[in-house]
Specification:
Layout lengths: L2 E4 L5 H13 L4 E4 L6 E5 L5 H9 L4 E5 L1 H5 L1 H5 L4 E3 L6 H11 L8 E2 L26 E2 L1 E2 L10 H5 L4 E2 L2 H8 L4 E2 L1 E2 L15 H10 L4 E2 L15 H10 L4 E7 L3 H6 L6 H13 L3 E8 L6 H17 L1 E6 L18 H12 L3 E4 L3 H8 L4
Parallel strand pairs: 1-2, 1-3, 3-4, 4-5, 7-11, 10-12, 13-14, 14-15, 15-16
Antiparallel strand pairs: 5-6, 8-9
């Protein structure tokens, strides 16, 4: 059977990872721009789902959908697609394709159909699959996150336990690149449980990488503010090429940080910015405006924090988007105050702020892996 991958913006890393996983089972995923026989696979996110669900409904072939939107809304997606991969796909997708090819009618655990769903009873061991094969993608260093930020799909999709690709497997994959960047919920947490640093393991990884330039703690491998310690920054200075460190503040209000369960305070953010500055590194700090619990005072506090950050580094601002499957799914973004738009506009004109506080779609494509 021919098995196709429907290409679309923002799904390349999923394609790279799943093509590599399918290859280990002897299955080739062919990229296509529209559904083709015999099987076409889709990765659905909140932006492409409305458009692609219509296409899936009328596709002239067997359809398999996965990704963050399909995992969170598997019942809705199973009404359009023949099969929905709920959660991680590396093991489940090749198992499903093999089952379809065999014609036995068995459906592996982890797959939803319009009639049934049995959750997967295991999670993926990252070293069992290369991060990519012929189709190059970013190297996924770690998966899962022990935190539970209310707006984030990562723990819902990958669980609360951090799993890491081994040093040997990372070094092997990194040889395909001259400069290397990583995907991870928190780059400084490599080798740890996500709460207690294991910088010895991180340093061993950095020592073993053979690349000309290593980028760590900068997009797409961002970090959490309380992990921006002297020890972490010294590793960046010693081993990495980036002179920016990217982390999430999200709000200038401790009440809002508590409500969205960020697990850090505004003081942690200020300390992280100061530490970057003291080490000669530029902090690039994410904020989210329009969070549902924000009062006017809270939003003003976020904007004051953004203005202070901009004097010491860069701000990356985004308008809140309630994503399916997250604790904040059913909430509504609150409007921006005129002074919020004015301040962010002024910072943008000064080259101190980037982001998408007026365009939530751009926010979405950066939202899934952010410390
Ligand atoms: S935003 Fe970052 S720290 Fe928070 S749950 Fe998501 S990945 Fe974890």
């Amino acid at each position: 059977m021919r098995v196709n991958w429907r290409t679309d913006r923002g799904t390349r890393n999923s394609f790279a990872a799943l093509a590599a996983a399918c290859e280990t089972a002897g299955i080739t995923l062919r990229p296509v721009a529209s559904p083709e026989s015999d099987i076409t696979c889709y990765s659905l996110n909140s932006i492409n789902a409305p458009r692609l669900l219509d296409e899936i409904r009328t596709a002239p072939c067997i359809t398999i959908a996965g990704g963050p939107h399909a995992s969170a809304r598997y019942r809705e997606v199973a009404a359009a697609a023949d099969y929905v991969v709920v959660g991680e796909g590396e093991y489940v997708l090749p198992a499903l394709i093999t089952a379809i090819e065999s014609g036995t009618g068995t459906v592996p655990a982890g797959i939803a159909t319009s009639g049934a769903y049995t959750p997967a009873n295991s999670c993926v061991w990252l070293d069992a699959y290369p991060p990519f094969s012929d189709i190059k993608g970013t190297i996924e260093l770690s998966r899962g996150c022990p935190h539970a930020c209310g707006y984030c799909q990562t723990p819902q999709l990958f669980g609360h336990r951090m799993r890491h690709r081994s040093i040997d497997a990372v070094v092997r994959a990194a040889r395909r690149y001259r400069d290397v960047r990583f995907v991870t919920p928190n780059a400084f947490a490599y080798g740890s449980d996500g709460r207690h640093p294991r910088f010895d393991r991180l340093e061993t990884l950095l020592q073993k990488l053979e690349n000309d330039r290593i980028f760590l703690g900068t997009f797409p491998s961002e970090v959490r503010p309380e992990w921006v310690t002297d020890a972490a920054l010294e590793l960046v200075l010693q081993y990495c090429a980036n002179r920016r460190v990217h982390f999430g503040a999200q709000s200038g209000s401790d009440a809002v940080l508590k409500a969205i369960r960020r697990g850090h305070t505004v003081a942690d953010v200020i300390r992280a910015v100061e530490r970057c500055r003291d080490h000669g590194l530029v902090p690039v700090v994410d904020i989210i405006v329009g969070l549902p619990f924000e009062t006017d005072d809270d939003q003003q506090a976020t904007i004051r924090l953004a203005a202070w950050i901009a004097r010491n580094g860069m701000v990356h601002a985004h308008y809140f988007t309630p994503l399916p499957g997250t604790p904040l799914e059913a909430t509504v973004a609150r409007p921006l105050l005129p002074e919020t738009k004015k301040t962010l506009g002024r910072l943008a004109l000064a080259g101190k702020a980037t982001g998408s506080w007026m365009e939530p779609e751009i926010r979405f494509f950066r939202q899934n892996q952010n410390g």
